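Pasting as-is:
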Amino acid sequence: MSQPASRCPVTGDAVLVAALASGDLSSLGRLFDLHATSVRRFVLRLGVRPSDADDLVQEVFLDALKAASAFDSSHAVRPWLLGLATMIVRRHRRSISRMAARIASWAWESKTQPQTPEEALESSHRAARMQRALTRLSQRKREVFLLVAVEGLSGDEAAAALGIPVGTVWTRLHHARRELMQRMEDKRP
């Protein structure tokens, strides 16, 4: 019988977390170097303003320092860090009593440059519609959508990161996709 997707053999990352739990602070720096870019990108996709992102990324790694002793080394480190980031962002939103107004510096555009001004305009409109559609999702649906559809986590990994049942992940993802498709079909600016 194979292991669930959220399980993984002990990796170098898990060894770093174990070292961190035993008081080796240099492992915190190595974890940061390996994962800070991914965590920052995820925090921005959750709708945090770029001016707040670096502070929240640092907070994620400070929380990782505190939580390292509770880390289950049979799980991957990246989903654990993204789960911590999710909790940090929730805490940040509660502390400022408002939802971030937009997902900053991110849009889904093709990697090739549009050939004509009309294509460039259409691409810009599509990106703006997607950005608006994402910001209109509930926080919980957006978190699941970003973890699974954008960050590439499995359902089990997303469930572990968010501390919810895997069935809840699939339900939220289904509703998020449906809402996004409906909103993307709406061509209004």
